[in-house]
């Protein structure tokens, strides 16, 4: 039998296997499971986007190989959206690349910048792809703890000098998954200064900027002076327009970094289906009332999830953005054990914080991505039978 690579051996163990098994067992036994664990919008993609896709897919022009960098029209739409939303100017020809979902670009960027033994600074807790893509590229992830006392922002000055000297990349993500924390422009200014000093490329993941509440407006990392010289920003249509299955996103910023990522892409993929890119143009340039409606729905679900955490006896801050609630467990409670008990006792699935890194231990994540009636049912179950 052919042995797999040592890179796979370096990947962290899949922590959710036991919980996944318990979910399947519960469903097989007829339990009505309410899954508040997965961050996948349940609302449909807006009709005008779907209609553009239907029209485009019938056009044989879009049936051939797409451009590796993406259609210029899509890149122009993305650049125009960024300028209108954030006041950030990017050249569509050289500072924007279309992605097959932002995850694809995040997974490929370490291949463009890390050699064996180089370091990527990754938040903890975090979206697992940051660390795992680093490992698959032969690099070494260095965990930057996101602690509640620090607003779930990394303490840059706590990073040892010897780590800074080896670091080539820094991954950030605000509004944040899983903590729902937000970052202000002053924090981004400090990141830019740090990146300039230590010659680090900042990779900011920004898919949740439009899922925001109570008048909050999330900034872009690229708004800060000097950011484009040391950074790139990934964005996606998945969360804003309920398009997770469509696999369409983009990255903007440093011309040199965009070119390097483009070289990787030309050797790995063949670009995003152009009919999907046409639908993406419709999303970015069309009516935005659909986004406001999604946020209105999420706001009601946020209220219900906060009722749920209260019924569970957990502490949780109302999130300013994202469709997640990050809830603190009682002192000494292990998140995986808690989630298993919640499933057994109430048929409710939550994501254990430890699955996002060791600094996520002691928390659970709840997603607003189930129909409102299902979240109401979760509240009813817990209210009728509070956890022991």
TrEMBL record:
It comes from the Archaea. The keyword Transferase applies. Keywords: Aminotransferase, Transferase. Its EC number is 2.6.1.-. SUPFAM superfamilies: PLP-dependent transferases (SSF53383). GO terms for biological process: lysine biosynthetic process via diaminopimelate. One of its GO terms (molecular function) is pyridoxal phosphate binding. Pfam families: Aminotran_1_2. Gene3D superfamilies: Aspartate Aminotransferase, domain 1, Type I PLP-dependent aspartate aminotransferase-like (Major domain). Residues 32-382 form the Aminotransferase class I/classII large domain. Its cofactor is pyridoxal 5'-phosphate. PROSITE patterns: AA_TRANSFER_CLASS_1. InterPro entries: Aminotransferase_I/II_large (IPR004839), DAP-NH2Trfase_DapL_Desulfo (IPR019881), LL-DAP_aminotransferase (IPR050881), NHTrfase_class1_PyrdxlP-BS (IPR004838), PyrdxlP-dep_Trfase (IPR015424), PyrdxlP-dep_Trfase_major (IPR015421), PyrdxlP-dep_Trfase_small (IPR015422). Belongs to the class-I pyridoxal-phosphate-dependent aminotransferase family. NCBIfam families: DapC_direct, PRK09276.1. This is Aminotransferase.
